[in-house]
Design goal:
Blueprint: E1 9-12, H1 20-27, E2 32-35, H2 38-42, H3 45-53, E3 59-61, H4 70-82, E4 87-92, H5 94-106, E5 133-137, E6 149-153, E7 159-163, E8 171-174, H6 184-203, H7 209-231, H8 236-252, H9 259-268, H10 276-291, H11 296-305, H12 311-324, H13 341-350, H14 363-373
Parallel strand pairs: 1-8, 2-3, 2-4, 4-5, 5-8
Antiparallel strand pairs: 6-7
Helix pairs in contact: 4-5, 6-7, 6-8, 6-10, 7-8, 9-10, 9-13, 10-12, 10-14, 11-12, 13-14
Length: 374
Amino acid sequence: MAVINYITQIQFDFGAVKLIRAECERVGIRRPLVCTDKGIVAAGLLARLTDALGDLPFAIFDETPSNPTEAAVMQAVAAYRAHDADGLVALGGGSSIDLAKAVAILATHPGRLPDYATILGGSPKITPKVAPLIAIPTTAGTGSEVARGAIVILDDGRKLGFHSWHLVPKTAICDPELTVGLPPKLTAATGMDAVAHCIETYLSNAVNPPADAIAYDGLQRAIGHLERAVADGTDREARWHMMSASMQGAMAFQKGLGAVHSLSHALGGLPVSPHHGTLNAVLLPEVVKFNEAVVPAKVQAVARVFGRQDGAGLAAAIRELNARIGLPAGLSGMKIGHDTFEYVITNAMKDHCHGTNPRVATREDYMLMLEASA
């Protein structure tokens, strides 16, 4: 028996951020806390949002780190309570949106953040009491605006997931205008995050045919427009399609991800704090080769999007794409050495994405993937 849910209300088009006041009213948010980061403020994107909020009383938390942490979540919870907020607006990449989801839990639930981590049995403890959230992405990669999960680095260094249908934003405002002019390197990294989401979802062993179709279409959009978006940050058509690919990847990955993400989540907890999308891009070639043994027809279908015929050709095509858009060729380019691999594998085996990879990976399999990706 397959249980299929899709997903939330989405406002999608250039200029959609202007709808924020109406969406706050629709979902009952009268005193929002805006969660964002310093880069968004410096880029002038926060001003577009606050102009659209008008006279709605709001407060701002702009201390979101590049990878959201438990400490930052607690600071934002304090800001939420100080403002007497009744909801959240997240403006930024996946970090700001994921941080806001964690705030939505702790602002309305007792205990500590680890109590609600998925692998620690915390998902059933997340109730409909979560603070309402509206998510506005400013990158095209994570898709967190339509996802039920968040990834946060805990105070003890673990990078854990928090998942509940109650965490899905009440509205996703997808405005491609907010991504116009995004720097090439960030466009590349977030774009490959979307590519990885689409591919891993499509290959996952969970049963969800609508997710497969959405992921495959999203992949075609990404491969058709990513290089254009990297080359010209003002290419509006490319930006529109990349935002759609990002959204579609996350709409689809409700089905489940796989070994790319179990490894990248573990690697993301290292002190070097590598970019999640870049990690996915570097790990993806070896994972698709590993999976071809059990889902050959699906791997071959993905390969055809890249103009190739099989897993080996697909792996080569992904590496070539990474090089063309300026991403590192291996983990060593992100200062990740072999001395971290045992730690990474231990945490990857515990990750919530490990079980939905189409082929069960052993410690030895993970080691081979990491060594080949180094």
